[in-house]
Design brief:
- It is a single chain.
- Helices cover about 45% and strands about 5% of the residues.
- By secondary structure, it is mostly helical.
- Bound molecules: zinc ion.
- Zinc ion (ZN) binds near residues 126, 128 and 138.
Length: about 280
């Protein structure tokens, strides 16, 4: 449900993004006859049996894969550990470079692959680990094997790890509304406007594109925040990449909060999203 709602809180496509997405679909022969211009962010949901060429692109005449069809949109991988590990590993390069290069003997083709990766997984093969109502029947070794299908370096590249507990039926049916998508999208647009003003350049638009130097410039921490981050790094044994991710994410949480300084609650929330680093 979360991944289906995600496009409704993302900013509308710019004309440039719209043209780029349309070109990819057109070249792949996937542009609907009655749609000259794709105006909504694509959501791709490949099955866990998808092959490597289907995922990242390939073929004698190079064709765009799911990562490129999801460009400017969302790539949703359900049952994440069920995908072949070799295929999951091929995602690392596009996640890093935001494009894929398909090399052939005489030439190479480059496709954009700037997508938001959303992945879902069970806590164990049977799905009931930590469930308050049902008993997990998995052996600890089975759980280890299941979780280890996702490599550390891949987990490292994912910004937010969230545990979604079972929602009791009465809460599911509760009439109390949370934040609506319209309100949330406005918050996202405001946060992005703050980022544009901060970077004031065409090249750099978003917090997650900040380099090490920009992080030091725009994510200045006071002594309290510094202490929290140092403690998390040593206690949880986080990587340097996770350290920078926490800073970028806390900058974004502060932006959503319309706060210029990063405050302790922003750092704490960002650290909380590194949950899987501790388990895998
Ligand atoms: Zn289980």
């Amino acid at each position: 449900m979360l991944s289906r709602r995600l496009p409704t809180i993302l900013p509308p496509l710019t004309l440039e993004e719209s043209l780029e997405t349309t070109r990819i679909y057109s070249a792949a022969g996937k542009l609907p006859m009655d749609t000259p211009l794709l105006a909504t962010r694509p959501v791709r949901t490949p099955h866990h049996t998808a092959s490597a060429p289907a995922m990242v692109g390939g073929g004698t005449i190079p064709q765009a894969g799911e990562v490129s069809l999801a460009n400017n949109g969302i790539l949703f991988l359900d049952e994440f550990p069920e995908f072949m590990r070799s295929i999951l590993e091929t995602l690392r390069q596009p996640l890093e470079d935001r494009q894929v290069t398909i090399s052939r003997s005489h030439s190479s083709v480059c496709f954009p692959a700037d997508f938001l990766l959303v992945a879902a997984m069970n806590p164990c093969p049977c799905g009931y680990f930590n469930d308050p109502n049902k008993t997990c029947k998995c052996h600890p070794q089975q759980i280890d094997r299941y979780l280890s299908r996702i490599s550390g370096p891949l987990i490292d590249r994912i910004d937010l790890h969230i545990e979604v507990p079972v929602v009791p039926y009465r809460e599911l049916r509760s009439s109390q509304d949370g934040t609506s998508s319209t309100d949330m999208r406005q918050k996202v647009l405001d946060a992005r406007a703050r980022q544009r003003r901060r970077f004031d350049s065409k090249k750099l638009m978003l917090n997650n594109q900040m380099t090490g130097r920009e992080i030091r410039k725009h994510c200045v921490l006071d002594a309290d925040c510094e202490g929290l981050l140092r403690q998390a790094m040593t206690q949880l044994g986080l990587s340097a990449r996770a350290h920078d991710k926490i800073l970028r994410v806390s900058r974004t949480i502060a932006d959503l909060d319309a706060s210029e300084p990063i405050q302790p609650q922003h750092i704490t929330e960002a650290i909380h999203y590194r949950k899987l680093d501790r388990q895998l």
